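Fig. S4 source data, part A: sequence.
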Amino acid sequence: MSLITVGFKNLCAFFTKKLDDELMVGLLDLADFEGVPETDIHCPKITIRAKKVVNPDGECVIVQQCWVYEGFQRTNRCCLTEDGANGAHPRHNHSESIFGKILFMVPGVAPGLNLDLSPEKIAELEKRENEKRPMKNPIKVGAFNKTLDIENTLYKDHPLMVRPEFCKARFHFQHGALYSILPVAPNPIIFKPGGSGADGPYAFEAGLEIEAPDNHYAVMRFLNTDTRDFVFQGGQDQCYSVTIENSPISRQHGEGEAGDPDHFQYYYKLVDPDQPPHPIYLPSPTTPPVGDPFCMIGGFGGTNY
């Protein structure tokens, strides 16, 4: 069995109306909208990491593999680095696009998303997530419903006209176990102006664990561009780590600086401009020690797509 762990960071919009069948995750290109400062423009990035064991001349060598898709109309590059090497060795560079409809499929396996995680599964996911992070910033894993649903929580009494087609890239997932990622001691997020009734702790990231049985594989298919499909090879103990993020450039290589502008406001770019929400609720500037309410993931649970 191969294991694929997908992490979602920063300005990713979750569309969960059809969650019994699939999850759609949309990425906004803020350059499409007027009035967005250049420093707030977000850049989509897909990072895929894996370890490969090769056996040249009878000696086992672990090769770290890394593929990066970056930007809506930027480049895709692949690098392979042996453990202990001082640098990366590019294998190829070619023009690619993160754009349009992108399917994440496990051919030959019946679709199904798992939202009901056992305590043992939560502990396993939490261990794996913490192994990828600095020890000083531990996290905990919770049920997927810990993510903020903008429609059904912030505006439960005021229907929004949301336009998912405003997302320049749209990922569709039909397999795996969904979960949320929170600080160990989450501070409640307070929305301003008051009156939303939605104050409380929320996940700042989310994850999806996908299993591909032996003799199967998974594939990420780009349907609306000439970007080549990415195939996740099956096989015993084959593991992949995938990060999908939509971040300002300053946040793609570590934590952002305190006092960053409130990027949560840009979710409202998905609302029909002829029917804007009133009031517009935004997180107040009380940043928790881990996670970021100003650029956290957000969901839309009432919108068809």
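Fig. S4 source data, part B ends here. Confidence is low (pLDDT under 50) at residues 74-95, 255-259.
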